[in-house]
Design goal:
This protein is an alpha+beta fold and 216 residues long. The protein contains ten helices and eight strands.
Length: 216
C-alpha cells in the first residue's frame, strides 16, 4: 500500500507555520520533513512526526523575546508564496519557477525580516517582480511593479524589433503613430516585417501581404 503524504502547508504548529515540503530531505532520508517559518522569521526543517506531537514548537530561537511582527501582513504572504512556488513541486505555478531553476537567495529563504528589510512594504497596486525573468529572487533582481510593468516583463511577452530597437509588443503599441495592440498582434502572426506590423497603414499591410502570397 502506497503511503499518502498529508499536505500540511498553511498549517500552524506552535510558533511554526508550514510553508512547503522539504523535498531534498525526502530524497536523501526517505522521510517527510516540512520547511517551516518560525515567528522569529527564520526557516527550519521539521520532521512530520514532530509536528504532529507539537514537539519543536519553534525553531530553537528565543522567539518569545524576538518577533518580527510581520505575521498576517501582505509582505509575509508574498514571502511565503515566493518560497512555495520555487520549492514546492505541488504548487500549481512551480513549473514556471522552481521547475525552471528559479531560486530564492539564502538570506531571503531563511528570513522574512531580511526580505522586508531589502524590499520594504509593497506599495498599493504593485506586486513582486523579477527584473530578469530568468534570474532568481534576490535584492538585486527584484522590485515592486504594476501589473502593466509585469506584463511587459514576462517570458510570454512578444518582442518586436523595428529599426534596430527591440521592445515588447505592448510598448510598441503605445508609440506615437503605431497601430492598436490587437492589430499589431494579428499582423505579426502572418508577417515577419515588424515595422510594417507596427506602423504600416491597413492599405500598406494588405498590399505587402497580398504581394507576398502571390509570389509564394
Amino acid at each position: 500500500m502506497q503511503y499518502v503524504i498529508k499536505d500540511k502547508r498553511g498549517q500552524r504548529f506552535g510558533k511554526l507555520l508550514v510553508l512547503a515540503m522539504d523535498h531534498d530531505k525526502y530524497e536523501t532520508l526517505k522521510k517527510v520533513y516540512w520547511i517551516c517559518e518560525c515567528d522569529c522569521g527564520r526557516l527550519t526543517s521539521v520532521y512530520t512526526g514532530d509536528l504532529r506531537t507539537n514537539r519543536p514548537g519553534a525553531c530553537g530561537c528565543q522567539q518569545n523575546k524576538i518577533k518580527h511582527g510581520l505575521c498576517g501582513t501582505r509582505i509575509h504572504r508574498i514571502h511565503s508564496q515566493m518560497i512555495d512556488r520555487c520549492t514546492n513541486p505541488r504548487n500549481t505555478r512551480y513549473h514556471y519557477y522552481g521547475g525552471r531553476g528559479i531560486t530564492v537567495c539564502d538570506e531571503w529563504l531563511e528570513s522574512v525580516t531580511a526580505f522586508h528589510r531589502d524590499m520594504g512594504d509593497p506599495p498599493d497596486g504593485m506586486s513582486l517582480d523579477r527584473i530578469n525573468v530568468n534570474g532568481s529572487y534576490c535584492k538585486e533582481n527584484c522590485r515592486w511593479a504594476t501589473q502593466k510593468q509585469q506584463m511587459r516583463n514576462t517570458t510570454r511577452s512578444k518582442m518586436l524589433t523595428v529599426d534596430g530597437v527591440t521592445k515588447p509588443m505592448v510598448e510598441w503599441a503605445e508609440t506615437a503613430g503605431a497601430q492598436d495592440y490587437f492589430v499589431i498582434r494579428s499582423r505579426v502572426r502572418v508577417c515577419s516585417d515588424h515595422k510594417l506590423c507596427v506602423f504600416g497603414t491597413e492599405a500598406e499591410y494588405k498590399n505587402r501581404v497580398v504581394s507576398t502570397e502571390e509570389l509564394g
